[in-house]
Design a protein that fits this description.
The complex is a heterotrimer of chains A (about 180), B (about 200) and C (about 230). Chain A has about 180 residues and is α+β, with helices and mostly antiparallel strands. Chain A has three helices and five strands; from the N terminus they run αβββββαα. Chain A is about 45% helix and about 20% strand. The relative contact order of chain A is 0.13. Chain B has one domain. In chain C, helix 3 runs parallel beside helix 6, helix 3 packs antiparallel against helix 7 and helix 6 runs antiparallel to helix 7. Helix content of chain C is about 60%, strand content about 0%. Chain C is mainly α. Classes of the chains: A alpha+beta (about 180), B mainly alpha (about 200), C mainly alpha (about 230). Chains A and B meet through helix 1 of A and loops of B.
Chain lengths: ~180, ~200, ~230
């Protein structure tokens, strides 16, 4: 009987106790950190939005679920300042998330990648800030953006970026047409 | 169907767990000395990956997420995997001794194989559905196997070569792994365009 | 003196990465930039320190039979806590380390030290051991990252280096470069440590599974695997 206690009950009891204590402590840490995490995430998202659409101060998500495939989120800026559209395409290394700001006159203010896994030194030419490729789209209309030449040597990455902008304009068209 | 095919092929070739994501390096370097053990280990990894995904995906979606317990993910997953490996070992030993003979030795090593925990967490992070997650796990396991099998070939070729003294052993193995990994980089961007 | 020795052994003589060959996955994956490497090293060190202290303190309470599950639970709990704190206070680091942050759980160094050291030594000794091993891990990561970032990206902690920035060897920051630099570093270690010839192979020392696998899977893979013995 004593053996059973020692061989079976004690290990189970100790393991259970440790699990419970660890879970309780984690719940406590989670209580402490989760508001900070949410706030930080929201702040980062808000900063990214203002970066591509400088006029807008506040944003509101456009409620709609028939976006073309690849369009993730669409936000409307306050007082007709334009729209910010988050799009996902596939680059060379995997998913590429692009955020585009479109002004009310239908031109692109700026577009930048939020996330990408393009090859360092090759595909990154299409997504880096100082490569000049992203800047070629600034101020262009939907047609103008499609005229931009992709980078030879980084064709897949630059095409993915261009395609993302095309998708953003597509979503913008839907918003305008449906008057959302 | 196309999406599943893309997930499978990308997991095998582009995002190869060993050669591109650096997950499961320990068995890759340790057990790739000959073909037989390489295949045995990879088979065990594929098996455990599929089992682990089948167990952890529903746990995350139906148990943790509805109760806002997402933060317990790591701890729950590792325990599930550890328990699963033990269970599989006991079952194999009892009912399939032949399989246990060939896979058994590798099973205890798999609990702390980061590729298995990695695949279960990534399946959730990527937002895959159940079947997509299963296909991704299968692909990741097959990719692991491909890398192991290829690399065991590379290593057996190296065996008789004249290697500089300080490179003998692990260093030259790592350099060979670098070249094997380089060959896999050529697959990038191919799969997406295969289906479009 | 003994304490100091206990600390420094982790740095060089028993460096967990370059000598014991543990924790290779995070070493290869997060050494693409110096800041990531230091972040990863610190995160792992913190987890290692607390896990060693806790396990050493609880070593009399934890029954031998369930010790590995107990260690895993403790370590996973610590890793999750660290992960939440990093997410809250250093979100950029969280994005950079990605999946490798939760994967500290299966970092062989941590479970290995718990099983090999903390379960047999006092709290203070275990803490010193953890700091030594953690510093050794961080040092190895830092060395790898310096080589990879300076030559692969032409930067040091994000700052451009004049000549190298125009002539960068991008491949070093990619997957093959990781293996290659790791191989070179290890060859250098071999060269320096020549006075004590030891043909280095994949190490089972410190592997948490060493007691279970009897080296059947790892070291003696060339001999056909014979049945595993019953584990206590």
């Amino acid at each position: 009987m004593k053996n059973v206690m020692k061989e079976i009950v004690k290990p189970i009891a100790v393991l259970t106790c440790i699990c419970l204590v660890v879970a309780a402590l984690l719940a406590f840490v989670n209580q402490l950190t989760s508001p900070i995490i949410t706030a930080a995430e929201e702040k980062a998202a808000a900063e990214a939005r203002t970066e591509v659409l400088s006029e807008a101060k506040r944003f509101q998500e456009v409620p709609y679920d028939q976006w073309p495939e690849g369009v993730a989120e669409v936000y409307r800026g306050n007082d007709d300042s334009g729209y910010v559209i988050v799009v996902q395409t596939k680059g060379y290394g995997g998913v590429m998330t692009v955020i585009c700001g479109i002004r009310p006159d239908g031109t692109l203010e700026a577009a930048k990648t939020l996330f990408h896994s393009e090859t360092n030194g090759v595909g990154t030419k299409a997504v880096d800030n100082h490569s000049g490729y992203r800047e070629r789209f600034a101020g262009q209309t939907a047609e103008g953006c499609q005229q931009v030449d992709t980078i030879s040597g980084a064709t897949i990455s630059s095409t993915a970026f261009k395609k993302a902008i095309g998708l953003a304009f597509e979503a913008y068209g839907i918003v305008k047409e449906a008057g959302l | 169907m196309t999406k599943l095919a893309i997930i499978l092929l990308s997991a095998v070739f582009i995002n190869n767990y060993v050669l591109a994501k650096f997950l499961g390096i320990c068995p890759f370097l340790g057990v790739s000395k000959n073909l037989k053990s390489a295949v045995g280990m990879s088979a065990a990894v594929i098996f455990v990956m599929l089992m682990a995904t089948a167990a952890t995906w529903p746990i995350q979606m139906y148990l943790l997420n509805p109760h806002n317990l997402g933060y317990l993910q790591t701890i729950v997953f590792i325990l599930v995997i550890a328990a699963l490996v033990q269970l599989v070992e006991i079952v194999l030993k009892r009912y399939m001794p032949a399989l246990h003979q060939s896979l058994g030795v590798y099973l205890p090593l798999i609990t702390t194989n980061c590729a298995v925990l990695g695949v279960t967490i990534l399946n959730i992070d990527e937002g895959y559905t159940f079947w997509e997650a299963m296909v991704n796990s299968l692909g990741s396991g097959l990719g692991f196997m491909l890398a192991m099998v290829m690399f065991s070939g590379v290593r057996s070729t190296m065996e008789g070569s004249d290697i500089p003294e300080s490179f003998k052993g692990l260093p030259i193995t790592l350099v060979a792994a670098a070249i094997t990994s380089l060959s896999f980089m050529g697959f990038g961007g191919v799969i997406e365009n295969l289906f479009s | 003196m003994k304490t100091l020795n206990n600390y420094t052994k982790g740095l060089v003589r028993e460096n967990p990465v370059l000598v014991l060959v543990l924790g290779t996955c995070p070493t290869l994956a997060t050494s693409t930039s110096i800041l990531n490497a230091i972040g990863m090293g610190l995160a792992a060190t913190i987890v290692l320190l607390f896990s060693n202290i806790l396990i050493s303190a609880l070593r009399k309470v934890i029954p031998d039979k369930v010790r590995i599950p107990c260690y895993i639970v403790l370590i996973a709990g610590l890793v999750t806590a660290v992960q939440m704190l990093v997410k809250a206070y250093a979100p950029a680091l969280n994005d950079a380390l990605g999946i490798y942050l939760p994967l500290i759980v299966v970092n062989c160094i941590i479970l290995g030290r718990a099983e090999m050291y903390a379960s047999k030594h006092s709290v203070f000794e275990s803490a010193v051991d953890a700091l030594g091993m953690g510093s050794g891990f961080t040092l190895a990561l830092f060395l790898m990252a310096v080589i990879r970032e300076v030559f692969g990206n032409g930067t040091f902690c994000g700052m451009d280096i004049p000549v190298l920035h125009e002539n960068k060897i991008s491949i070093l920051t990619m997957a093959p470069g990781g293996f290659f630099v790791f191989g070179l570093l290890m060859a250098m270690m071999n060269k320096w440590a020549k006075h004590k010839p030891k043909k280095k192979d994949f190490g089972c020392e410190g592997c948490p599974q060493a007691s279970v696998c009897h080296k059947t899977a790892c070291s003696q893979a060339e001999t056909p695997a014979h049945g595993k013995e019953e584990t206590a």
